């Protein structure tokens, strides 16, 4: 057998060009005489992973793709290339819960629901949900880290958020099922636990075309049962109500009309319903729905959207929320807000999030709520959350600022195990106290409550592994079509072409005259600085470094008058193909210096020879050019080149 090289190929194999994945791993192929082999041998690449493929077109994406390995499939990558997606269709059953209310005539059913810990869900669900707002946050969700990637760092929905917003238990037994339920087993479960006949059960699953039952069917068959009914009927109605409740809230799927019958197994013993960690299962299910919605071809979002929407209201109170002044801290925090549909478009919400400042985010919104509901210790649990066949990682170490601690560079996110290894997951969850973050892992607390502090090297690291800006600068609402078409291509990599792009941008603004607003001039200078800063980085990587005078050094972000450390986009590392321009708009609080006297003459250097200036408008009074002479010159030059 021929020996193998480091690349995994036999020594007698012909040379071939390495793939992009192999070049990134620096695989060395043995150099042999490039003679074509009449019978080439294909060698399997066992160590190649499809998730390592880099989305080469998304130059606004992460530079270091060791974290977000599937970014090439993300909806944000498609948006960066100019493909847009309409707002997601939301599955929200807040109005359906009011069709089956537990009044005084059904007090026995309510007592069981109250003992289960799920009673707050009957009153805290939002009837409306904002499609643009939730769709924009889905575009910032990253499946590998299970966090939202904002311009200033990561954040996510924690177990503390679930406990405070919904007031449902987050500790207890893990919700697990041995295997997916088949239709025959689902029919048997309906007969056993709901008292239906075989014909009714078969007819319902056939209509749903899955082991599911319609929410309308549950209301029609069991909502009329009262305390005057028999004990068996009350028990059946209680199970049906709980199944209807979780189908409208915690485990709302994208069918929008039905609920999986497998959850009925959790209500077999009604005395044990309160022993489950409903909040952890709800969070795992919502994580999975957000992950699915990050694919460009997905058009719908499921899960408990009240939890997601209330979380946005809590942490972005100045942007989206409308508080209810009659709220008291003894109730779930979901009732603190008046749900409404924001009038903004999806693109408008994207741009608002792209310009978001760290001071606009509320890191610790539950300070006044701690007297009623203290921070649960399980919120520091670092591991996996499980809901049936759904397993999602939970990383509190990536969002330490939401707990009032200084954010450090977190470790690499772990890959969750397969759902069929439920025994190991349940054992890990049962000993969750052994898997919480230690005091050393948490670090030190922030100097000021809610300040959102981080270590100095965190933002530089975050810039390299994240995709902070979703809306491309060329597609923003304030960037006109004429200005976009006049800019040279992003594919150019020379410093001369980058300088030409900056000068072309400035000429467009100068030609508009002094009647334009100051913001237009300020924004043009801002973008031109970003273009030239990228040129300096690129040119420096291909030349021998030499000491430069201090007066010509690139200013730091802190010294720039129109940048703040939270909004400055650090230039990426040098590469063969430079990334596109990502420049945030200047803050409204910063104004240009007042002019004292007449403005100095503007000196615009000429464009390089490789880039032609924009053609002037034709003069109707000028004589028409001689097309014959120009054609003759072209033909002669072409013939001379052939000879």
Largest sheet: 3 strands, antiparallel
Low-confidence stretches: 1-14, 24-59, 486-494, 535-584, 587-596, 626-641
**Count of alpha/pi helices:** 19
The side-by-side strand order for the widest beta sheet comes to 2-3-4
Average predicted local confidence, pLDDT: 77
Q: Using DSSP, what is the number of strands? A: 9
**How far is it from the N-terminal to the C-terminal residue, by CA?**
56 Å
Structural class by helix and strand composition: mainly alpha
- Percent helix, as a range, is 25-40%
Gross morphology is globular
Features:
mainly alpha, two-stranded parallel ribbon, 643 residues, globular, disordered N terminus, disordered C terminus, three-stranded antiparallel sheet, 19 helices
């Amino acid at each position: 057998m021929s020996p193998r090289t480091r690349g995994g190929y036999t020594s007698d194999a012909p040379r071939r060009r390495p793939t992009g994945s192999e070049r990134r791993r620096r695989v060395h192929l043995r150099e042999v005489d490039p003679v074509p082999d009449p019978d080439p041998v294909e060698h399997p690449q066992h160590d190649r992973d499809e998730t390592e493929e880099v989305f080469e077109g998304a130059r606004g994406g992460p530079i270091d793709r060791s974290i977000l390995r599937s970014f090439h499939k993300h909806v944000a990558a498609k948006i960066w290339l100019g493909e847009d997606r309409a707002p997601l269709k939301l599955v929200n059953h807040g109005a359906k819960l009011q069709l089956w209310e537990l009044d005084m005539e059904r007090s026995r059913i309510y007592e069981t629901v109250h003992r289960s810990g799920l009673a707050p869900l009957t009153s805290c669900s939002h009837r409306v949900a904002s499609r643009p707002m939730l769709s924009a946050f889905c575009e910032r969700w990253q499946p590998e880290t299970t966090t939202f990637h904002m311009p200033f760092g990561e954040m996510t929905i924690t177990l503390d958020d679930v406990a405070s917003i919904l007031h449902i238990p987050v500790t207890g037994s893990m919700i697990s099922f041995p295997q997916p339920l088949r239709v025959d087993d689902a029919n048997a479960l309906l007969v056993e636990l709901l008292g239906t006949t075989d014909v009714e059960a078969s007819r319902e699953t056939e209509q749903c075309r899955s082991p599911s039952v319609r929410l309308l069917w549950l209301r029609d068959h069991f909502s009329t049962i009262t305390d005057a009914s028999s004990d068996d009927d009350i028990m059946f109605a209680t199970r049906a109500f709980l199944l209807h409740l979780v189908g409208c809230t915690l485990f709302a799927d994208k069918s929008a009309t039905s609920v999986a019958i497998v959850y009925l197994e959790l209500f077999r013993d009604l005395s044990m319903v309160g022993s489950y960690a409903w909040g952890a299962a709800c969070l795992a299910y919502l994580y999975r729905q957000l992950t699915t919605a990050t694919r460009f071809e997905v058009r719908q979002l499921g899960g408990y959207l009240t939890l997601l929407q209330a979380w946005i209201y809590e942490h972005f109170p100045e942007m989206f929320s409308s508080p209810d002044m009659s709220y008291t801290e003894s109730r779930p925090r979901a009732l603190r807000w008046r749900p409404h549909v924001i009038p903004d478009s999806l693109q408008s919400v994207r741009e608002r999030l792209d310009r978001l400042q760290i001071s606009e985010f509320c890191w610790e919104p539950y300070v006044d709520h701690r007297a009623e509901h203290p921070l649960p210790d399980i919120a520091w649990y670092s591991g996996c959350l499980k809901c049936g066949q759904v397993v999602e990682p939970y990383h509190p170490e990536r969002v330490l600022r939401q707990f009032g601690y200084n954010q450090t560079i977190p470790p690499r996110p772990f890959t969750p195990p397969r759902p069929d290894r439920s025994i190991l997951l349940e054992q890990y969850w049962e000993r969750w106290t052994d898997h919480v973050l230690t005091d050393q892992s948490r670090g030190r607390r922030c100097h000021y409550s809610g300040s959102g502090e981080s270590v100095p090297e965190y933002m530089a690291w975050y810039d390299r592994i994240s995709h902070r800006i979703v809306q491309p600068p060329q597609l923003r609402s304030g960037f006109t079509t004429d200005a976009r078409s006049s800019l040279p291509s992003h594919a150019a990599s020379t410093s001369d072409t980058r300088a030409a792009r900056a000068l072309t941008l400035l000429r467009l603004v100068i030609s508009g005259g002094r009647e334009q607003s100051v913001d237009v001039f300020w924004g043009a200078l801002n973008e031109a600085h970003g273009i030239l800063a990228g040129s300096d980085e690129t040119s420096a990587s291909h030349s021998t470094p030499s000491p430069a005078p201090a007066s010509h050094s690139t200013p730091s972000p802190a010294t720039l008058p129109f940048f703040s450390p939270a909004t400055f986009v650090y230039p990426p590392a040098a590469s063969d193909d430079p990334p596109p321009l990502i420049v945030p708009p200047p803050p409204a609080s910063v104004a240009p210096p007042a002019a004292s006297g007449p403005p100095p003459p503007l000196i615009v250097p000429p464009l390089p020879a490789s880039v032609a200036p924009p053609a002037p408008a034709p003069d109707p009074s000028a004589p028409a050019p001689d097309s014959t002479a120009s054609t003759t010159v072209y033909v002669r030059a072409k013939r001379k080149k052939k000879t």
